[in-house]
Amino acid sequence: MTMNKIKKYICLIMSTVVLCIFVCGCAQDSMHASPQGGYEVTDCRGTVVKIPKKPQHIVTLSMYTDAIALGMVTTDKMAAMQALSDDPMNSNIVDKAKKIPKKLKSPSTEEIFALHPDLVIASEWTSADIVGGLRELGLPVIVCKSVVQVADIKDCIHLIAQALQEEEKGELVIQKMDAELADITKKVNCIPQEQRKNVVLLSLMESYGGIGCSFDTMCKYAGVVNGMAVAGIHSGQTMSKEMLVNINPDILLLSSYNDHGTYDVTKFNREYLDDPSLQTINAIQKNGLRYPREGYIYNASQDFVYGVKEIAYVAYGDEFAQGSDCHISFSGE
Fold first, then answer.
1. What is the largest CA-CA distance in the chain?
2. Torsions phi, psi of 58, nearest 5?
3. Closest to 333 (Cα-Cα) out of 70, 79, 58, 59
4. Which residues contact 193 (CB under 8 A, 6 or more apart)?
């Protein structure tokens, strides 16, 4: 081999090494090995969380993080999940939730710690005392952002996938979510603007449903007009009955929440349907009363797409029909 060929060969090897270092460095921006062993992830608040090993005993503290985790890990990896996850009136992952014996409603730091989790997945509305207390006790806790836009959901999936060391499954979940949204959008685009329905959500969370919440985003994808948003009502603001009359929706989305049969949701709905001041509303006069599946329309996980489809279904009919337990998962169980 000539000297020139040797030099070219050495340059090729060095170039390959440099490229590999660059690629690996980019892949470790948000997850990297800890010098003491294990690995680290950076959560939505910028907190670097050390995780000693791939989690096998996971606790999630909200329904959307339950669903995201169960899109990537089997039920036997879950130590506990949110209390409503096995309620068919409020959840779309009932069958999986039933396999997880421990359910949490408003758990204390001590109750969570007693489960001996090797990862706790919290949300931005989880009490700071809970998050801080668990970290002081030595548990790895990641905090996921609140969801308004689809991009927020993808951020949560990426973070949880990194914490679970299931990045490949996380990408598959996102790809499936994008494909479902694309299919819905294609159908919605065929609905003329003049046929778009004006809808209002009557939620037990009376300040929910306006501008700046995930329901408002769902409405945009579903091709309906969110009456509260058009009226200038923001999430966190309450809609009065006088405002409801002025909005005059074509469809009222009524609540079906009953907390495993312990809450009288009929009484809540009748406060609107029997009110004499609301009888001129189109939805009441023209049979525009709908009971969407709440496991979908309040969903902030990858299954947000089925919330979009549910709204489109109650507004436009069978073109958007779906089952009651749709869940995007590549967990294998």
1. 97
2. -100, 140
3. 70
4. none
**Superfamily per CATH, domain 190-320:** Nitrogenase molybdenum iron protein domain (3.40.50.1980)
Under a CB-based contact definition with an 8 Å cutoff, are residues 192 and 223 in contact?
no
pLDDT tens sequence across 227-271: 999 999 999 999 999 999 999 999 999 999 988 889 999 999 999
pLDDT tens digits, residue range 117-147?
999 999 999 999 999 999 999 999 999 999 9
Handedness of CA 39, 42, 43, 45 (dihedral sign): positive
**Confidence (pLDDT) at 332:** 86
Domain with CATH 3.40.50.1980 in the chain: 36-177, 190-320
- Residue recorded with tokens 């509303």: 281
The answer to whether 104 and 80 are in contact (CB under 8 A) is: yes
Is residue 317 within 8 A of residue 222, CB to CB? The reply is no
Give the count of beta carbons closer than 10 Å to the beta carbon of residue 152.
Answer: 18
Distances (CA, A) of 292 to 16, 118, 142, 174: 55, 36, 32, 24
User: Starting at the edge strand that comes first in sequence, how are the strands of the sheet with 225-226 ordered?
Assistant: 225-226, 198-201, 251-253, 289-290
Query: How many other C-beta atoms lie within 10 A of the C-beta of residue 28?
Result: 12
**331 Cβ partners below 8 Å, 6+ apart?**
70, 71, 72, 73, 74, 169
> Quick one: which of 156, 100, 151, 91 has its CA closest to 123?
156
Nearest to 55 by CA among 38, 43, 34: 38
Residue partners of 309: CB distance under 8 A and separation at least 6:
180, 184, 222, 296, 320, 322
Q: What architecture (CATH level 2) is domain 36-177?
A: 3-Layer(aba) Sandwich (3.40)
Q: Which residue has the tokens 């979908």?
A: 296
**CA-to-CA distance for 38 and 30, rounded, in angstroms?**
14
d(CA 11, CA 180): 47
d(CA 146, CA 40): 22
DSSP 8-state code for residue 112 = H
Task: Tell the residue number behind the tokens 């479902």, with chain if given.
Answer: 180
Helix (H, G, I), strand (E, B) or coil at 216: helix
Q: Is the confidence at residue 292, as pLDDT, over 90?
A: yes
